[in-house]
C-alpha cells in the first residue's frame, strides 16, 4: 500500500494505459480514483461497453492508433498483457525508461487483501475459480480476478475483499516486479506459446517462476512436484516461502497426494488430515485431480473445515460460457467458451486444452489481430469451423496453420459439422474471438444455442 505522501505525489503523475480491454479499463478506473492524470490508448477499436465506462468517468482515450508523443510523455505505463514486449510502442517506452506495470501489479499497490496467485500452462481458470468457490462457500470475503471475471483493478476500486484469487498468465508475470503473492500456486509448465519468449523454453520457465519472487517466510508456494519443468526450475529459482508440493506419483509427508490411486490426501502442518475419493470430485479427469489438490492445499492452509472443503469440491460447477464442459458424446468433449469475445480469451482457452481441437470461431470481427493464436492453432487445432457472416480474416490468418477451415451459417450446422470432423478423444471448443451480434443476441445466447445443439446430436 502507498503512503499519504506517495498518494499526494501521484496526483500529478501522468499514467497511460495501453490496451482498453477488461484489464486496461479497470486500471484506468482505479488510476482515476487514485488521482492520476489518466489517458487510455488502444491500437484497435474499443468495445462499446468499455468506451462508455471511460466516457462516464471523463477519462480521455484514443482508439485505432497510439499517439506516440502522448504515450511517451507518461510517468507510468500500465500495459495490457496481450500486447507483446516486441510491439513498437512498448520498445520505445522501455528505451525511454518509463516504468511499465501490469494491471495486476498496479492494483496490488492499493489493497491490503491476501493474494492467492495461480499460474501454469493449463488449468489456471479452473483452479482459480474452484479455489474462489471453496473459500467463498466457507464464508471468506473473497474476490476472483486476473484473467477471469471483472478486472482486479476494478474490484480494488469498487470492492473491499479480504482475499483475492488471481488467475495469472505468463504475459501478466512478464510485467511484474514488486507484487508479492501470499500464496503462489504453480500448476504445471508445458512448452506452449513460446513465440513470446524467443522460442526458448528457459525464458518461459523464468516467466512462470516470477510468481514466487518477493515472497517472504510467512508466505506459501504450492506446486506440482511431478512436473519436470517445475523440478528443473526449483533448482534455479528460490523463494523464502513455505513449500507445499502436490503429486499423483509420490507419497508426501506434507502436501497433497493420492492414496492407492483413488483418494486425495492433504497434510498441512497443525491441521487435521483431509481425505476425499477422486470419484466424489465434481471435476473428473487426471488434470482436475491436480487442480483439486492445489485448491485443497490453499483451503487447508487457511484452516477451512474438511467438511466444507469436501462439500465444495463435490458440488463445484464451472462458470457458464467460460470453458464450460457441456457433454462428452462418442468420446468427444464439447466445451462452451462463448464468453471468449476477443483473441486473448481464445489464446487462454486453447492453452488449457490438450491437442486435437476442433475450434468453432467467428462472429463480428472488431479488427482482431490473430497473430498470437497462430502457434497454438498450428500445434493444437485440427480443424476450424467458422460461424458468422464474414469469415474472410479467419481464413486469411489460419489457412497455413490447419488442414481444414469451413464456413457455416448457424450454430446447429457448426456443431453438427464439428462433431463429424472430430474423432474419439478430441475436443470441440466453441471459443469465438468475436462479438456475437451478427447471429445471436449476446454471448450467453450464443453459448446457450451451442449447448442446445450439442444435446441434439
Automatic annotation (TrEMBL):
ATP binds at residues 120-126. It is found in: Cytoplasm. Keywords: ATP-binding, Cell cycle, Cell division, Cell shape, Cell wall biogenesis/degradation, Cytoplasm, Ligase, Nucleotide-binding, Peptidoglycan synthesis. One of its GO terms (biological process) is peptidoglycan biosynthetic process. GO terms for cellular component: cytoplasm. Residues 205-264 form the Ubiquitin-like domain. It comes from the Bacteria. It is an enzyme of class 6 (ligase). PROSITE patterns: UBIQUITIN_2 (PS50053). It catalyses: UDP-N-acetyl-alpha-D-muramoyl-L-alanine + D-glutamate + ATP = UDP-N-acetyl-alpha-D-muramoyl-L-alanyl-D-glutamate + ADP + phosphate + H(+). Pathway: Cell wall biogenesis; peptidoglycan biosynthesis. Its EC number is 6.3.2.9. GO terms for molecular function: ATP binding; UDP-N-acetylmuramoylalanine-D-glutamate ligase activity. Pfam families: Mur_ligase_C (PF02875), Mur_ligase_M (PF08245), MurD_N (PF21377). The keyword Glycosyltransferase does not apply. NCBIfam families: murD. Cell wall formation. Catalyzes the addition of glutamate to the nucleotide precursor UDP-N-acetylmuramoyl-L-alanine (UMA). Belongs to the MurCDEF family. This is UDP-N-acetylmuramoylalanine--D-glutamate ligase. It comes from Albibacterium bauzanense. The gene is murD.
Amino acid at each position: 500500500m502507498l503512503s499519504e505522501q506517495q498518494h499526494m505525489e501521484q496526483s500529478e503523475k501522468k499514467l497511460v494505459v495501453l490496451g482498453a480491454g477488461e484489464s486496461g479499463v479497470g486500471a484506468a478506473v482505479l488510476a482515476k480514483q487514485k488521482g492520476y492524470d489518466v489517458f487510455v490508448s488502444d491500437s484497435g477499436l474499443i468495445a462499446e461497453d468499455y468506451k462508455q465506462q471511460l466516457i462516464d468517468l471523463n477519462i480521455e482515450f484514443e482508439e485505432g492508433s497510439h499517439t506516440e508523443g502522448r504515450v511517451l510523455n507518461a510517468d507510468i505505463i500500465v500495459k495490457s498483457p496481450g500486447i507483446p514486449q516486441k510491439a513498437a510502442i512498448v520498445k520505445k517506452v522501455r528505451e525511454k525508461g518509463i516504468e511499465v506495470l501490469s494491471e495486476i501489479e498496479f492494483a496490488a499497490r492499493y489493497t491490503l487483501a491476501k493474494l492467492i496467485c495461480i499460474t501454469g500452462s493449463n488449468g489456471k481458470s479452473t483452479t482459480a475459480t474452484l479455489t474462489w468457490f471453496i473459500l467463498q462457500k466457507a464464508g471468506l470475503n473473497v474476490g476472483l480476478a486476473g484473467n477471469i471475471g471483472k478486472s482486479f483493478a476494478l474490484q480494488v476500486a469498487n470492492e473491499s475483499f479480504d482475499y483475492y484469487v488471481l488467475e495469472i498468465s505468463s504475459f501478466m508475470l512478464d510485467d511484474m516486479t514488486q507484487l508479492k503473492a501470499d500464496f503462489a500456486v504453480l500448476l504445471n509448465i508445458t512448452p506452449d506459446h513460446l513465440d513470446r519468449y524467443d522460442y526458448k523454453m528457459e525464458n518461459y520457465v523464468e516467466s512462470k517462476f516470477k510468481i514466487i519472487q518477493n515472497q517472504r517466510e510467512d508466505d506459501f508456494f504450492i506446486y506440482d512436484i511431478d512436473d519436470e519443468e517445475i523440478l528443473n526450475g526449483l533448482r534455479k529459482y528460490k523463494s523464502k516461502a513455505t513449500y507445499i508440493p502436490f503429486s499423483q506419483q509420490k507419497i508426501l509427508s506434507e502436501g497433497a497426494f493420492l492414496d492407492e490411486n483413488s483418494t486425495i490426501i492433504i497434510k498441512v502442518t497443525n491441521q487435521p488430515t483431509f481425505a476425499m475419493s477422486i470419484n466424489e470430485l465434481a471435476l473428473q479427469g487426471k488434470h482436475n485431480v491436480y487442480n483439486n489438490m492445489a485448491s485443497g492445499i490453499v483451503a487447508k492452509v487457511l484452516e477451512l473445515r474438511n467438511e466444507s472443503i469436501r462439500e465444495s469440491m463435490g458440488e463445484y460447477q464451472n462458470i457458464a460460457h467460460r470453458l464450460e464442459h457441456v457433454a462428452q458424446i462418442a468420446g468427444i468433449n464439447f466445451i462452451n467458451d462463448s464468453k471468449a469475445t476477443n483473441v486473448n480469451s481464445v489464446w487462454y482457452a486453447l492453452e488449457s486444452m490438450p491437442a486435437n481441437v476442433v475450434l468453432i470461431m467467428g462472429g463480428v470481427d472488431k479488427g482482431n489481430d490473430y497473430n498470437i493464436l497462430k502457434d497454438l492453432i498450428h500445434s493444437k487445432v485440427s480443424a476450424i469451423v467458422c460461424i458468422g457472416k464474414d469469415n474472410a480474416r479467419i481464413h486469411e490468418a489460419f489457412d497455413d496453420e490447419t488442414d481444414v477451415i469451413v464456413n457455416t451459417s448457424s450454430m446447429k450446422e457448426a456443431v453438427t459439422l464439428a462433431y463429424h470432423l472430430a474423432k474419439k478423444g478430441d475436443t470441440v471448443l466453441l471459443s469465438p474471438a468475436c462479438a456475437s451480434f451478427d447471429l445471436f443476441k449476446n454471448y450467453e445466447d450464443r453459448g446457450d444455442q451451442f449447448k442446445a445443439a450439442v444435446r441434439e446430436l
